[in-house]
């Protein structure tokens, strides 16, 4: 029998808990689509020129759905940034070698169309984005770099600064490979 203080929807007729996996999966799919749509729109017009209507259209969701996930544009942009950092951390930790991790990170940063557009249209925002601070996201980036690449504080700082420089000065694939190999030999 259901506990008297439990909400009516918390258990099925047999007393077992209700599973919310389908709703959670739908929520996650919507959030992934919104973030992907936001990145596409940013790649075309820049972050602060992007309109929520355009993002909703790209994500194939309503504006209301976006606001169910994110309170405002700033929260959406912060979530996009966090998801991009998480994606890059996964790339780095999945690489077979440190040189391959650096190369893959370099290519992803240098080829990112949204970052390139933001450099062109959102100079203040890109400056804030690439300034190492004590923000929790930067702390997570630093920890991940230390975990993947090892080394001391100076080595991790060198790696992060090399990667940050590519936001405003992207490298070619050949340059990425040569520099990643050289940087790895210094670690």
How would you briefly describe this protein structure?
It contains ten helices and no strands. By secondary structure, the chain is mainly α.
Structure characterization notes:
The radius of gyration is 21 Å and the shape is elongated. It starts with 20 loop residues before the first helix and ends with a helix. With 187 residues, it is an all-alpha fold. Helix 4 runs antiparallel to helix 5, helix 4 (73-94) runs parallel beside helix 8 and helix 8 crosses helix 9 (153-168). The chain contains 10 helices and no strands. It has one domain (8-186): Tetracycline Repressor, domain 2, CATH 1.10.357.10. It has helices at residues 21-45, 52-59, 63-69, 73-94, 98-110, 113-121, 123-130, 136-149, 153-168, 173-186.
Please write out the topology.
Elements: H1 21-45, H2 52-59, H3 63-69, H4 73-94, H5 98-110, H6 113-121, H7 123-130, H8 136-149, H9 153-168, H10 173-186
Q: N-to-C terminal Cα separation, in Å?
A: 62 Å
Output the radius of gyration.
21 Å
> What spatial form do the alpha-carbon principal axes imply?
elongated
Uncertain stretches: 1-13
The count of strands amounts to 0
The proportion of residues in beta strands is under 5%
Specify the helix fraction band. over 70%
Biggest sheet record: none
How many H/I helices?
10
Structural class: mainly alpha
SSE series: HHHHHHHHHH
Overall pLDDT metric:
84
> Can you say what the CATH homologous superfamily is?
Tetracycline Repressor, domain 2
**How many structural domains can be distinguished in the coordinates?**
1
The CATH top-level class label: Mainly Alpha
CATH architect. name: Orthogonal Bundle
